[in-house]
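User: Let's play a game. I give you a shape written as tokens, and you guess the letters that built it. Ready? Here's round one.
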């Protein structure tokens, strides 16, 4: 079939490239099962992504000198709730017709400015590349 005909698929040709920074010890599980959703965070439960340069710093922070990894993904964000500089730690966006949420994360993990973060509800809407 035409992969471009179903934009809900993880292989959606209109997905965006985003990154996930993590520590090396998580790689075997990710390789076997894919990315897992965090149970909580600034935008609630979901899989968190950002742009490459920020994911590198997050991976460095999470690795704590024991190894770091940046995972590149194609992500179909679908209907995005943008909370600007705010947050939604209860993840109310996920129950209000949104597939993902975007916010500007404040300075953190050695990143000296706010940076964009995305939280995706459904792991089937991302593909590791």
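Assistant: Ready! My guess for every position:
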């Amino acid at each position: 079939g035409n992969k471009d005909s179903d934009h809900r698929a993880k292989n959606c040709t209109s997905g965006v490239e985003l990154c996930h920074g993590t520590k090396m010890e998580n790689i075997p599980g990710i390789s076997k099962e894919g990315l897992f959703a965090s149970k909580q965070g600034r935008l609630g439960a979901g899989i968190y992504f950002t742009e490459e340069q920020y994911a590198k710093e997050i991976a460095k922070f999470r690795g704590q000198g024991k190894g770091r990894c940046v995972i590149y993904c194609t992500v179909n964000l679908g209907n995005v709730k943008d909370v600007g500089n705010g947050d939604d730690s209860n993840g109310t966006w996920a129950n209000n017709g949104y597939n993902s949420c975007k916010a500007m994360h404040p300075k953190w993990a050695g990143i000296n400015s706010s940076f964009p973060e995305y939280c995706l509800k459904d792991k089937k809407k991302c593909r590791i590349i």
